[in-house]
Amino acid sequence: MNLEQRAKVHAALGDPVRLRIAEELAVSDRSPAWLAQEVGVPSNLLAHHVNTLVDAAVVRRSRSEADGRRTYVSLTELGRATVGSQPLTARRVLFVCTHNSARSQFAQALWRGCSDVPAASAGTEPARRIHPKAVSVASSHGVRLQGQPALLSDDDFDGALVISVCDNADQMLDHEHLHWSVPDPARDDRVADFRSAYDLIESRIGTLADLVKEPS
Prior knowledge:
By secondary structure, the protein is an alpha/beta fold. 43% of the residues lie in helices and 15% in strands. The chain is built from 9 helices and 8 strands. The chain has helices at 3-13, 16-24, 32-39, 43-55, 77-82, 103-112, 132-140, 167-172, 191-211; strands spanning 59-63, 71-75, 88-89, 92-97, 119-123, 160-164, 178-179, 212-213. The protein has a 4-stranded parallel β-sheet. The chain has a two-stranded antiparallel ribbon with strand order 1-2. It has a two-stranded parallel sheet with strand order 3-8. Helix 2 (16-24) packs across helix 4 (43-55), helix 6 (103-112) crosses helix 9 and helix 7 packs across helix 9 (191-211). The longest helix has 21 residues, at 191-211. The N and C termini lie far apart (39 Å).
């Protein structure tokens, strides 16, 4: 960042409410309604603060693939590099998407490379196999996708820090969880989309892995 950009970021985060919003997004994408309730401000004031953070390139907005009326607010790469977060404790980590054939498989495999905390993945409607393009993209990065898609069960939530990597799964889960809004690469079935999904998940895995520790 040049001097002007750094000043803009510091000015945006200099307001306590905006800093709180950014910190709430450090490990999970959130809806504006969730943020308004958690931060304790009316929706119109929240929109003003989010607009300021968007203008400073700290956060971005995106539409939910599951419900186009729903919006997610997430940190940009600049935002994640700027905003810290509190440590998290979990006996294991669980990544969830709809088919457990690409995004959650990417997340589980990448997690194995940067954390000793056990991890698993599952799908709300698992496919019959891991998507071949997901296998190919992971392999090009030296990452092996193992096993077969698994059906999510209630037992999977026991003691787990749960992260949905799919907007449909986010809206289906009744259990407390974090969310990363990652577009479905299988929707158009293009290799470029699988690469983008892999890159987006990879950009977030390391940050979360640094925060999550097993209970002593």
